[in-house]
Write a structure and sequence with these properties.
The complex is a heterodimer of chains A (274) and B (266).
Chain A lengths: L7 H27 L2 H21 L3 H22 L4 H22 L5 H8 L7 H20 L1 H16 L4 H23 L4 H15 L3 H26 L3 H19 L1 H10 L1
Helix pairs in contact in A: 1-6, 1-7, 1-8, 1-9, 1-10, 2-3, 2-4, 2-8, 2-9, 3-4, 3-8, 5-8, 6-8, 7-8, 9-10, 9-11, 10-11
Chain B lengths: L11 E10 L2 E11 L4 E5 L6 H8 L7 E6 L2 E2 L11 E4 L13 H6 L3 H4 L7 H13 L15 H13 L5 E5 L7 H18 L2 E5 L3 H4 L5 E6 L1 E6 L1 H4 L2 H8 L3 E3 L5 E3 L7
Parallel strand pairs in B: 3-8, 3-9, 6-7, 7-8
Antiparallel strand pairs in B: 1-2, 1-4, 4-5, 9-10, 11-12
Classes of the chains: A mainly alpha (274), B alpha/beta (266).
Chain lengths: 274, 266
């Protein structure tokens, strides 16, 4: 198995997987704590519609993915803030509408385009050097922003109104978080795909959530779990020749269920009930 | 009696202020001054605008009509920078019990507003957080998960979070809801103690008139409009109370005020 490490493509994909794993699991902490899981799933599908439109009209697919993703998070964020509609309703509508757009765009293409499906299912083993550089650059931007604003991000996740009442610019931080979610989805699209990217954001943080009661520990656990699952998933996928996206996500899911079973929170709760 | 002119300017000054959303008036024509060092209880039935008053004082809502001045800031345009000076305890149930955060992490959040963007909490901030925990008697629980504490202990920790802002005003929205009677008394006693020890101005919003009537300097009685504001003995008169509570009001021979709708909140 170890001879695999000497291939260029393998080194690239391991690096890409580790970066995407770290990125998704870091932003995932705030997505899970702020209760934005469903919004993220909607964003991933919207971004995929952007990719499809890009291929249809000959524009850079990732640019349109970003525009679609940002439009989705900002609209849903605005709806949540105004409280005009239940969030699950507004996301549910946007989610299916953007998926319909994606199917429409693909249908309008004159020929079958395998690359579009690459963005839907992801293929980390096919990552090129330029793509790796883009992933690395954008990851630094997103993780840098998270580090810079981490205390405010934690605070709005804990209680946005309390944060605002304490003099933290909570609204702006909330929209920053939404923007970072959209960026993360777009960065990860090529490696894990539009369908699975949200698992990468959601599962490591939710797994860590089972294991600790401290915010800082939660973040570190989430990153360790995210990176290990991504790297482990790529190794499994190349060793057994199975698709990389599902390998990563199923490995993370397995860890999640193990964490649920072993959760100290759960044990304490059942003790309290007895 | 001191002359009016010798008073320092009030901390909070509502001047014929109306709050709400277009088409919905939550508070109408409120004129009220709260002075530095006062302990004020805000009472009124459900839906009387108590929480709106709270949001206004926090600078989260601008008056539709009239003026609101807090410290030296006009809040007519929501550009106030006084927020860190008001320590706020939101209604219970707002905070997720399972949120993975320790007691010290929670209280340190009280420093974030004052720190501003980009700055990390340092040793000084941790000291202030620990001091705040000591004030509420929870310093020995600093590494415990917030979710594992009892309801009363959680309220203490959240009050410590407000104290960590080193506020001038403590604003408490229904701090005793959902707690058992003994714990309710302990929490209100703690608030009174903080008012006396730290000289904090306290604005306490509650359903429970009897819990606070002997402790506050003034009561403010709301039902969209301001019905009365003054010492408890002047406000808790049957004719005034019945204007607000109507047939829900029972006053026992021991002068205990019972408001029937109180139980609907549990």
């Amino acid at each position: 198995m170890f001879e695999l490490f000497f291939y260029d493509f393998m080194q690239r994909s391991l690096l890409a997987a580790a970066l995407v794993g770290a990125l998704c699991s870091t932003i995932g902490v705030f997505v899970v704590l702020r209760g934005l899981a469903f919004m993220g799933a909607g964003t991933a599908h919207a971004a995929f519609a952007g990719v499809a439109l890009g291929y249809l009209i000959g524009w850079p697919p990732l640019l349109l993915a970003l525009l679609f993703g940002l439009a989705t998070v900002w609209v849903t964020g605005w709806v949540e803030e105004k409280g005009r509609m239940k969030l699950d309703v507004s996301i549910g509508i946007l989610y299916t509408a953007t998926m319909a757009l994606a199917i429409l765009f693909i249908g309008l293409m004159k020929t079958y385009n395998a690359e579009v499906y690459g963005y839907l299912f992801g293929n980390v083993l096919a990552v090129t050097n330029e793509e790796l550089l883009t992933i690395a650059g954008l990851s630094i931007v997103v993780i840098g922003a998270i580090v810079l604003f981490s205390k405010e991000l934690y605070f709005i996740a804990f209680d946005q109104e309390m944060a605002e009442a304490s003099g933290v610019p909570a609204r702006r931080i909330f929209f920053l978080l939404l923007t970072l979610v959209a960026l993360t989805v777009v960065i990860s699209l090529k490696t894990v795909g539009g369908i699975l990217v949200f698992a990468m954001i959601l599962i490591p943080a939710s797994t860590a959530y089972q294991l600790t009661h401290s915010l800082s520990t939660l973040t570190w656990y989430s990153i360790i779990i995210g990176v290990s699952c991504s790297v482990g998933g790529v190794l499994i996928s190349s060793y057994w020749d199975i698709p990389s996206g599902p390998a990563i996500v199923l490995l993370a899911t397995l860890l999640f269920f193990i964490a649920v079973l072993l959760s100290p929170k759960r044990q304490r709760q059942s003790l309290a009930l007895n | 009696m001191r002359s009016v002119n010798s008073h320092p300017p009030p901390f909070i000054h509502f001047d014929h202020a109306t709050f709400g959303f277009p088409g919905v008036v939550a508070l109408e024509d409120i004129s009220l001054e709260i002075q530095s060092g006062e302990f004020v209880g805000v009472i009124g039935p459900n839906g009387s605008g108590k929480t709106t008053l709270c949001r206004a004082v926090l600078g989260l809502m601008a008056p539709l009509k009239g003026h609101l001045r807090i410290f030296d800031c006009d809040c007519d345009e929501l550009r106030c920078h006084h927020r860190a000076k008001i320590g706020y305890l939101p209604q219970k149930g707002v905070v997720d019990r399972n949120f993975p955060v320790t007691v010290l992490e929670t209280v340190t959040m009280g420093r974030y507003g004052a720190l501003g963007l980009f700055k990390r909490p340092g040793r000084k901030d941790r000291e202030i957080a620990m001091e705040s925990l000591a004030h509420v008697g929870m310093d020995m629980h600093k590494d415990t998960a917030l979710g594992l504490l009892s309801g009363g202990q959680q309220q203490r920790v959240l009050i410590a979070r407000a104290l960590a802002q080193q506020p001038e005003v403590l604003l408490l929205d229904e701090p005793t809801t959902g707690l058992d009677i003994t714990t309710q008394h302990n929490v209100v006693e703690l608030v009174q103690h903080l008012h006396e020890e730290l000289g904090l101005t306290v604005l306490l919003i509650t359903h429970d008139i009897n819990m606070i009537r002997s402790r506050v300097d003034r009561l403010v009685l709301l039902k969209t409009r301001l019905y009365a504001a003054g010492p408890p003995a002047e406000v808790l008169k049957p004719d005034i109370l019945s204007q607000v509570y109507g047939k829900d009001l029972v006053i026992t021979d021991k002068d205990v005020v019972i408001v029937e709708d109180y139980h609907h909140h549990h």
